[in-house]
Amino acid sequence: xxxxxxxxxxxxxxxxxxxxxxxxxxxxxxxxxxxxxxxxxxxxxxxxxxxxxxxxxxxxxxxxxxxxxxxxxxxxxxxxxxxxxxxxxxxxxxxxxxxxxxxxxxxxxxxxxxxxxxxxxxxxxxxxxxxxxxxxxxxxxxxxxxxxxxxxxxxxxxxxxxxxxxxxxxxxxxxxxxxxxxxxxxxxxxxxxxxxxxxxxxxxxxxxxxxxxxxxxxxxxxxxxxxxxxxxxxxxxxxxxxxxxxxxxxxxxxxxxxxxxxxxxxxxxxxxxxxxxxxxxxxxxxxxxxxxxxxxxxxxxxxxxxxxxxxxxxxxxxxxxxxxxxxxxxxxxxxxxxxxxxxxxxxxxxxxxxxxxx
Length: 358
Ligand SMILES: C[S@@+](CC[C@H](N)C(=O)[O-])C[C@H]1O[C@@H](n2cnc3c(N)ncnc32)[C@H](O)[C@@H]1O
Description:
Elements: H1 3-6, H2 10-38, H3 41-46, H4 53-60, H5 64-76, E1 81-83, E2 88-90, H6 93-96, H7 109-120, H8 122-131, H9 143-154, H10 159-163, H11 170-176, E3 179-183, H12 189-197, E4 202-207, H13 210-222, E5 228-232, E6 244-250, H14 259-268, E7 270-281, H15 296-313, H16 325-334, E8 339-343, E9 351-357
Helix pairs in contact: 2-7, 4-5, 7-9
The chain binds S-adenosylmethionine.
């Protein structure tokens, strides 16, 4: 035992070391979950009876040696079952229910991609630590693909059953025909869903990133939607006075250069009687309040490697992912919205929703 260890509780230190070893082990499983999602291996296995690695690799169109090594991670990680007699692997139905595209419980493997992306960004993030500078969206391979898969589940899929009903009466107005803006629309999935459902309304999506906008435009074209327009646009200093009846932003305020100014600009862009519906991460502005917040470490780490540096990279202060519902609420009130209602959806405790009216 070293001199330092003699002065502390050795059993506490050993327990903590075991915890850390477990964290590292689970981190490796998380990155491998992302690989299983990106390669389609979970979807392939969910469709198959127990099978050998060659059969699985062939069905997935992948190289067997790599599939076998990935399967070993999945087996030791408790995700996939393995029969050493037959050398067959199986993804049980109740595990496929949260790891496959279109899964009954939502596809959790989608969120594992955030962990893999953090690893890819490590060198760039270290440079941020050293210089205090930020990043640009172009630094992140696949950010918009991951984000669209993420919000496709949390926002677009919940839109008609849970989200729009928060803004009492908006569905009727959408059916009658109104002007709608989604500010920071990314790949535009939420807007596309609304444009499909409400052909009498006109929908506009603005986002800084041309690659996300190109993707959204192509998707709208494929669907033959004539009532939705996507435009690459930096929302810094944005205002189109009195143009819109309904404005949404989904997880798109805290990354901005100047979130407060954008909220003011969005308010000014509403017509009289207009509604602003905004979703953001539902954590508190105070670290001590987030100790039991779901997946708080993941959210702070996404903040560290993405949300904070992209805001700083735009010349912003870098509010971060956990800027807090208190900060968002205060900004909405200070912008002059007369009514600001806060909601948390029972099935989705990670997000906060505000309905603000002028
Ligand atoms: C976390 S993503 C959310 C995207 C989308 N709303 C969704 O839910 O999938 C934040 C979005 O804000 C956009 N954004 C960040 N800064 C912006 C700016 N200055 N002007 C316009 N869009 C911006 C990013 O390009 C990104 O698509």
